[in-house]
Structure formats: structure tokens, C-alpha cells
Amino acid sequence: MAESPLSHLDERGAARMVDVSAKAETERVAVAEGYVQMAPATLALIQEGGIAKGDVLAVARVAGIMAAKRTSDLVPMCHPLAITGVTVDLEAVGKDALHVIARVKTTGRTGVEMEALTAVAATALTVYDMCKSVDRGMRIEGVRLLEKRGGKSGEWRAPEPAAEP
């Protein structure tokens, strides 16, 4: 069988964890985003501190940070990384959405794209969990990598989207 263009498959097509031991350690940064669409009344409750389960933004932020640190436990081929920094920001967009941005940093042999994406997903899921009693119709949308820096491939930035969800 020919060598796969997918690095997590060996020459026979079997799953494997990529060996990164020969790679140079460099500073790695990744930024990801996502949106939680909701009813305007739900966003107002979040902003007013009116959700019965507590401070939605604070709990969701902590969930995102924790998820970034545990990504290798959730995504089978991810390497466990010594993350040196994680920030998760949540900002209201219009009257019916929260924008989530996660930034993850490390110095290592592999990037932190999956950690940033996992942080966004866990943050958004936590918002949903904390608010589902008032709005089961919330939607998590637009989770994507915005940028990555470091490593042999250098810098990458996502093209600008046509419009926010």
C-alpha cells in the first residue's frame, strides 16, 4: 500500500500516533473560535446573572481552559502537551449570540490547534449545559481554527468568513 497523506495512518493504513521526537521545539500558538446562538432573552439572562446554575461566563471559561489541558484524553491521536498558556474569551455578538475565542500556547514539538478547538467546543457546550433549562434551541456554530504559529509549517491564518453565523 502507498504511503498515506494522512500522518496518523501508517503504510498499511493502521492508525498510529505520529512520532514527533525528531522535530525541533518551538513556540506554538493556536487561536480558535465558535459561536453559541441563542434566544435574545437567554443572552440577556446570562448578562444579568439570571441563570439559576450560576455565572455562565465564568464557568464556561474555566471549562474551556480545563478542556484544553485534557485534549489528549479526548482526541485519541493527540500528544499530551505541557501547555504554557490558555485564554478563553466570551463576548456578546448582537442580541442573540456569544462569540468564543480560545488562545493556547506551548513550547514543544507539535502544535496546539486541537487544544484551542477543544477549548472552544467545551466552552460552548458548557454555555449550552448551563442555559438549556431556558433555551433548548441554542446552536453551537462556526467552530474553526483562526490561526496557528510555530513549527516547520510556520504561520497559517484562516480566510475571513463571508459573515458571522
Provide a short characterization of the protein structure.
This protein has 165 residues and is of the alpha+beta class. The chain has helices spanning 40-48, 56-69, 71-74, 113-131, and strands spanning 26-37, 83-93, 97-108, 139-149, 156-157. The chain contains 4 helices and 5 strands; from the N terminus they run βαααββαββ.
Describe it for me?
With 165 residues, the protein is an alpha+beta fold. 28% of the residues lie in helices and 29% in strands. It is built from four helices and five strands; from the N terminus they run βαααββαββ. The chain has a five-stranded antiparallel sheet, covered by helices on one side. The longest helix is centred in the last third of the chain and has 19 residues. The model has no long low-confidence stretch (mean pLDDT 90).
Any idea what the radius of gyration is? 18 Å
Encode the helix/strand succession as letters: EHHHEEHEE
Q: What is the number of helical segments per DSSP (H or I, 4+ residues)?
A: 4
The coarse silhouette is elongated
> Stretches where pLDDT falls below 50 for ≥5 residues?
none
- Structural class per helix/strand content? alpha+beta
The residue-averaged pLDDT reads 90
The largest β sheet comes out as:
5 strands, antiparallel
> Going across the major beta sheet, what is the strand order?
2-3-1-4-5
What's the number of extended β-strand segments?
5
Q: Please estimate the helix content.
A: 25-40%
Beta-strand fraction estimate = 25-35%
Report how far the terminal alpha carbons are from each other.
Answer: 42 Å
